[in-house]
């Protein structure tokens, strides 16, 4: 068994001061595959001190030099791709093909921000046309400082890439706390930092849970910027912590996203997108489109197709290439989803399929379920379930679909499936969501942005805005006579 008793601080493997360990579980075999030592606040102190020491040297490197390091991270991830895919799949339970997609996304993200680091050099000192005569103004962008990064377990190596790559590109140094549920793939980042000879202190990793390491990191006065992805409850605590010292904060939180299907939609495409929208990664996606709003005339056909597609899912060993549905990440997550299934039963909601699909005898599996005509007052309709559960309603027209779609405390994502592209565009324009996909799968290319409106968060990751999240802007104005 792999025992992860070490943090990575100042380019050295450091024994934790604490002795408490957490089990790292293979959610398919339900076996312990590693132990992770829960860090101590003093470990966080050491990591923050190392990041602060490294800050001046790192920020003074050119973007070109920083970009070369970030490209090297991408290369090392690529070189370890097969083993990391397997590790991620075992630790998280996602099918191998999905873990491979994660790796591809992470690598693309590092490559994109390597380019952004280089582009930053070219933008420094750009003249700003203010319309004022007699004055010349220039714009510079400086790193915010030491960044504290905290990620969840559902997309290992991806959520961290979305933070680490832009932070390093901007010139920030980093203290990273990965999820205690999936520490194994993230540990590779420390190995890579050593391999590529990243300057000491630029990247530090402290293992542990929220109570010890998470809170110590968010409360630490030596951290200038907090970037958090996770649940709303914790996100609010992180924001409260950031308020002390008026520190910069980015939040990527939950969702309860809609998928709208109009009467002219291609029903086969609609079924495909609806299934992927709520069952990919066993539904453990912040952007899961778990509320279907389908035009009444297409509803029976779409439901029949969906039930047939679900019946064809293969639940099994995530490392078996035939598997299309993995287990949920752990027992706690399965129990959380099962509570929602019990709530559905108590509310008189009945799944559309006669019987759930067959599941292996072990593993934290939940069979996908579709509930039709769910009242908008139901907890299932309103709350993020984070499992393969779809709630559906029929609508009479686009206005009703938009009203229901936007009636949520969240605003992360949405999908529109419509025959007429102009109609899809018009619908997309009326949705309060950070990302809307029209007639296509959920994609998040690094050059775009990612983030939510309303309760889904603050700020955008990816794209230029993802870099700006780690930068401060400085304007310098002087007399043009100088
Ligand atoms: P979580 O909020 O329980 O934990 C997320 C991270 O925060 C973990 O690393 C955890 O150890 C840490 N943490 C817990 N308590 C903390 C505290 N008091 N202070 C500081 N850190 C603390 O979330 P989870 O269960 O790991 O992930 C699921 C949630 O993440 C879902 O709600 C999902 O919607 C959200 N999510 C959002 C996005 C997005 O981009 N919007 C992406 C992925 C996941």
From TrEMBL:
Sequence ranges assigned to domain Aldehyde dehydrogenase in this UniProt record: 13-476
Protein known as: aldehyde dehydrogenase (NAD(+))
The organism of origin for this protein: Halomonas eurihalina
Tagged with keyword Oxidoreductase: yes
Family: Belongs to the aldehyde dehydrogenase family.
Top class in the EC scheme: oxidoreductase
EC code(s) of this entry: 1.2.1.3
Keyword vocabulary terms for this entry: Oxidoreductase
